[in-house]
Amino acid sequence: MRRISVLGATGSIGASTLDLIRRQPEAWDVVALTAHGNAQALAALAREFGAKIAVVADEAWLPELREALAGSGIEAAGGEAALVEAARVPADITVAAIVGCAGLAPTMAAIEQGRTVALANKEALVSAGEVMTAAVARHGTTLLPVDSEHNAIFQCLSGNAHKDVRWITLTASGGPFRDWSLEQLHTATPEQAVKHPNWSMGAKISVDSATMMNKGLEFIEAYHLFPVGLERLRIIVHPQSIIHSMVEYRDGSTLAQLGPSDMRVPIASCLAWPARMDTPLAAQLDLAAIGQLTFRAPDEERFPATRLARQVAQAGGGIPAVLNAANEVAVDAFLNGRIGFTRIAAMVDEVLGRYAPPPPAAIEDVHAVDAQARRAAQAVMEMA
Fold first, then answer.
1. At what angle do helices 343-354 and 305-315 cross, to 10 degrees?
2. CA–CA separation, 295 vs 293, rounded Å?
3. Residue 201 DSSP class
4. First-residue to last-residue Cα distance in the chain
5. 230 and 335: one domain?
6. Sign (positive/negative) of CA torsion 197, 199, 200, 204?
7. What strands, in cross-sheet order, belong to the sheet with 233-237?
8. Helix, strand counts (H, E) of the chain
C-alpha cells in the first residue's frame, strides 16, 4: 500500500482524487485529509478512508470536527500550524490541492519531506516559483503537475530533453465569454462567469478561466515547471478542450495529449506515475463524435490577463506574487458584486504599477509580498 495525504480533500480536486482511491482501497493508506472548514464533510471522508488525521484550516470548525470524529480514533486538529504539520506527516505522495496562497506553507512543508508532491495549487508556483523549485531540488522531491495542461506537457516531455523543445503550447478553452464582444464583457455577471462550458470547477478558478487569468497563471507555472525559456512558451485557444497541451520538438514533431474534460485523468496520471491506472470515466474519448478540433489565437484586447502574466513572468522576483494576490482580491470583489467583470484585469494592472517588491528568499517573504499586494489592491478598489 502507498501512503497518501490529500490537502484540500473537500474541494473538486480532492473529491476527484478520493474517488480514484475509493475504487482501489487495497492500494492506498490514507494518512491525512484537510479542508478549510466543512467539518462534517471532512469527518465523513476521514471515517470512510480511515485517515490518521483530519485538519480544518479554520479553527472555528475544530469543535464540530472533534465531535464528528468522536470514538473513531482519528486525530482532529485545526489552524494553519496544524495544516503544515499534517503536510509533514510521512506519506509516499501528497496531493496539494488547497486553493490560493493558503496552500503555500503546507505545500512547502510537503516538498521538504523529499517524497512525491502532486501539485494542484497553481498559486504556489506562481507566487513562490523560485523558492519552491529551489526547495524541490534541495530536498530531491518529485513534483508532479496535476493541472490538466501541465500534466499534458509533462507526459509529452517524457523521455525527451528540454534542449530539443521548440515550443510548449498551452491550450485554453477561452472560457464562457470567448465569443463575447468587449461591450458584452462589461455587463457579464458572476452567475454567467462561473458557468464554464467544458469543466466543472470552483467559483474562483471559473472566473479566472473567464478572464483568461487562469491561463496566464498557468503560463507562469509552466515557466517554473519546464525550464525551456519564456520565449518557447505560448498559448492557443482550443474551445473543445480535447487537446490539453502540446510540445513541438526541433525536428518538427509535435506531441499532444488528448483526453476528456475530466480531472480524474491527470490526477490518475500522477497517482500511478510512472505507471498507468484505470479511470472510471462515464464516456471515453470519441473523436468521430466530436468531429473537429478548432484553434484560434488569444485576443489580448478583450482578455488582457495573458499579456499581464507574460510581462510578470519576464519581470520575475516578487512581481508574480503581486499579480496573484491582486487577482484574488479582484475576483472576490467581482463575485460579491463590488466591481464589474472587465475591472478585474484592470485592477490587477493598476496594482502591478503601484507595487514592485524585491525577490522573496523564503515563504515568509512571499506571504509578506502577498499581504502588501492585497492591501494595495484594496486601496485601488476603494479609489475607483
1. 20
2. 7
3. -
4. 56
5. no
6. negative
7. 233-237, 165-172, 243-249, 254-258
8. 17, 11
Task: Classify burial at 83, counting beta carbons within 10 Å of its beta carbon; exposed 0-12, middle 13-18, buried 19 or more.
Answer: buried
Q: Among the three residues 240, 275, 306, which one is the final residue of a domain in this structure? A: 306
Question: Is the pLDDT assigned to residue 305 strictly greater than 80?
Answer: yes
User: Which domain, by its residues, includes 384?
Assistant: 316-384
- The verdict on pTM exceeding 0.85 is yes
> 175 — alpha (psi -120 to 50), left (phi > 0) or beta?
left
Please tell me whether residues 155 and 134 are part of one structural domain.
no
How far, in Å, are 30, 109, 115, 200 from residue 81 at the CA level? 20, 11, 21, 31
In angstroms, what CA-CA distances link 1 with 29, 74, 80, 300? 6, 19, 29, 48
On whether both 160 and 293 belong to a single domain, the answer is yes
What is the tens place of the pLDDT at every residue in 239-256? 999 999 999 999 999 999
Domain boundary residue among 280, 306, 332?
306
pLDDT in tens, 115-141: 999 999 888 899 999 999 999 999 999
Are 164 and 213 in the same domain? yes
Q: How far apart are CA 86 and CA 106, in angstroms?
A: 8
d(CA 144, CA 230): 20
CATH number of the structural domain spanning residue 361: 1.10.1740.10
Name the strands in the sheet holding 75-78, side by side, starting at the edge strand that comes first in the sequence. 75-78, 53-56, 28-35, 2-7, 93-96, 116-119, 142-145
Comparing CA positions, the residue from 218, 219, 196 lying closest to residue 206 is: 196
- Dist CA 317 CA 310 (whole Å): 13
Does residue 311 lie within any of the structural domains? no
How many structural domains is the chain composed of?
3
φ and ψ of 200, to 5 deg: -100, 110
